[in-house]
Amino acid sequence: MTSPTSGGEREKLASKLPASLRQALKVRAAQLSTDVQDAVTDGIQAWRAHAEPLPAIDTAGAESFGTWLPEGLYDDFKRDCATRGVSYIQGLAQSVALWLEQNPADEEDAPTRRIIVCNQKGGVGKTAVTAGLAQALAEAP
User: pLDDT tens for residues 121-132?
Assistant: First the structure.
């Protein structure tokens, strides 16, 4: 499947990815100010260049995942998976894990903060407070 953008320079990657890897990918990409599609592209290219076999990743229960790759990389990646004797899902999981390993987050720059807004009763403004708080935090320097 090709990208709807003009020129067809990207192709759709549709696969499955374990939830923990998908979450770690999104968080790390945000921490490093990079797009998920660029992170996945870099991970696949690193995986393809990696000569040694990588450890298997548990992909049981993996959920749908999709992004865009540069034109031609999708087919090359699928061929490499077949050559290495790993499933396409396993190859993608290994690629993402490799990218995460090669692109560590700076712990000081990315503190994690959780703010929980809860009340059992409905209609008390939980969603409104959460949305306003999220907006304020996003605008904060």
Answer: 888 888 888 888
